[in-house]
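Revision sheet: structure tokens.
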Amino acid sequence: MVDAILDKCQKGKYLSSLDYEKLLTLEDENKINQLLNTARTIRDRHSKKVLLTPTLSIKDKTPEELLGCIKRSEELRIPRVNFFRKYERDEDVINTCKLVKENTNLKTHVNISGDFSFDSIEELFNIGIDTICCNLSTVNKEVFLQNKPKDTLDKRIKVCQNISKNGIGLSSGLVLGIGENAPDRLKHLRFLSNFRTLEEIPIINYNTYPDLPTKEEDIIPLSEHLKTIAVTRIMYPKIIITIPLSEFRVEYCKYYLDAGANSFATNNILKYEVYKEILDIIDESGLEITYSSSS
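Predicted:
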């Protein structure tokens, strides 16, 4: 049964919800390896490029410090920078994106929550924002509320809809290990197809960050993370699948690449030793980094 499903994947044939569920719930190690190999083959068929993105906190840096990080990204020929959600006002995000666009040719990628206003999204569009990330985390409303009591799933969905309405590239993905289950993940992945400008799906394993509290029953083993990446690649053959890297798990790059991922984001990538380690893993995997066109 599994071999037949994977054969359909290789041939680009339609998979039913039951097919995807069987893949996502595989337990046999050999079958899981077959799944990962299939996903990797599908990715390589479309592109063997890997995108790297430094993630920068707006709140913790002055404009001068941010500009220094942005310039460092240019020196490394990294094509885009990300600003994540440690900010207090929409204006902070808008001003930082202006800083990038006025001083570099880099692409800009920002993380926002359900509180970000539609007017601010339109302003980001007007200054040339490339991608906006609004993670739904999970489409299980109860689990979402438990993890984000100050936000709502409906608000985030409306933000994603507005991003797409404005023609802006949308990044939206899953967080594993917050109380969701395999059917929740599958439902979430299928739901993302509703967004017209979806171009990137981050898949975050909450447990890879040692400083974050995790209930014992919610701990997600690496194999579950890899299966989710692989199923995402099969469902979305050309999509950017981004894995945020913890500074404690840089060596996991190889596993993520083997499962079909093609993008990494980390706040440590501007440290040359981290950058070099990731580049070496990408090279050993027979893949190439995506560089910016300007030097």
